[in-house]
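Dear colleagues,

As part of the handover before I leave the project, I'm documenting each prediction I ran so the next person doesn't have to rerun anything. This entry is a single chain, and its sequence is reproduced below.
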Amino acid sequence: MPRLFTGLEMPADAVSVLTGLRGGIHGARWIDPENYHLTLRFIGDVDNRTAHSVAEMLDRVRRPVFSIMLDGVGVFGGRKPHSVFASVATSPPLTALQAEQERMMQMLGLPPDQRKFSPHVTVARLRGVSASAVATYIESRGGFHWGPIEIGRFVLFSSRSGQGGGPYVVEEAYPLEGGDFDHGEDIDA
């Protein structure tokens, strides 16, 4: 039973910049650079039939290439921080792509995603790290901005259940109009 989600891969130049955010928090588990991505829609654990339906539905998306910008560093978890991320500035094309995928997943009978879309790239997972240590880290990276990053496709990823931070596998890749396309592996029947 695959665990699926849709997302945007980070190109090599963005990965290089994001890798520069590593370090500075004792006890952080830094995400491997090859696993940096922006999640569009978490789908979850589904049977193979549903996985095929998801892959086929996503093939209907017709959107043009667009750009995103990295826009700051933040933390999820408040007083009990659990993740450090690079923010991605919201934009109409990004929001529209995510909203279309949300509608498609609901058309397939999947429950709505309960989380508000907050575009970001997770760079570290935290456990037992003090909020003050994370605040110091965030403050030291105040002014982090980079881009534009051209987005030429989105992908359907799979991951192993219970493994936050990868490894992730590209199951299918979907080109945006005017973008490049490297077809991923098909989901096994």
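The chain has four helices and nine strands. The CA atoms of residues 88 and 119 lie 5 Å apart.

All the best with the project,
I.
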